[in-house]
């Protein structure tokens, strides 16, 4: 199988009916980067910057952050990399950062909330990113945005750090794109505002599922209780991709559901054309998509999503459909 997947590496990532689908990697450490070449991925759709912070025994300094980001861009061979700012707090506790115990860490003081309340931390990271990307394209994405004003505030930090570089005559990124993770359900009802502001968005289906269904993604007892291949969840995802397309804002999905072939085909069917996933999934997902017909998938899935019988999963139907091909 591995050999088979490797043989697909240089095949254009297209369905049988010619729909281009960008397959990208989720990464978090420098050692993940060679997978771009091994898998033929279109780039890094999600670089989880918190990994560097979580494996360190003290807060990584600006220079260390900058060095990592530069090395990542070097290793990406000119392919796009989307750096997500620190997603710590809640259950991703940094041993060297004092944190109060929280009763509901997933709903707590984490990610962009922590970054906006501790501007030195977020601005240092932004500075490191801007410096690392001198002369190259830079994409920065903010996690756990729940309200449009949080993106505005984060964007303002970037603007200030950018102005600082200009003032000191430092090299600037050749382009700068700022994006938002769609992973807190409140954003589903502020899509027009967020899509008008962001250069791109990326659906974090892991957290979106956790918050929409109120299931703790880390609690094995309930984590798989509900199927992401349910009309309810897929309607939410379809809503995002539809609005993004109308707004002309690029949209990717970078949660785990894009890593599984059947789920990825459902995402194709509802209109996603860019997925970011764990490196080992690129081969299997690519094999499935080379064999798929996007228009056929769309026609198959549309009535399944519209049906009103209260079914909580359309997995059996999708499986049967996939098996027939
Ligand atoms: C997500 O929430 O789907 C996501 C991609 O981010 P993380 O898994 O790091 O929370
Ligand atoms: Mg998340």
Automatic annotation (TrEMBL):
GO terms for biological process: phosphoenolpyruvate-dependent sugar phosphotransferase system. GO terms for molecular function: kinase activity; metal ion binding; phosphoenolpyruvate-protein phosphotransferase activity. Keywords: Coiled coil, Cytoplasm, Kinase, Magnesium, Metal-binding, Phosphotransferase system, Sugar transport, Transferase, Transport. It is found in: Cytoplasm. The keyword Phosphoprotein does not apply. Its main location: cytoplasm. One of its GO terms (cellular component) is cytoplasm. Belongs to the PEP-utilizing enzyme family. This is phosphoenolpyruvate--protein phosphotransferase. It comes from Hansschlegelia plantiphila. The gene is ptsP. The chain holds residues 427 to 751 of 757 of the full protein.
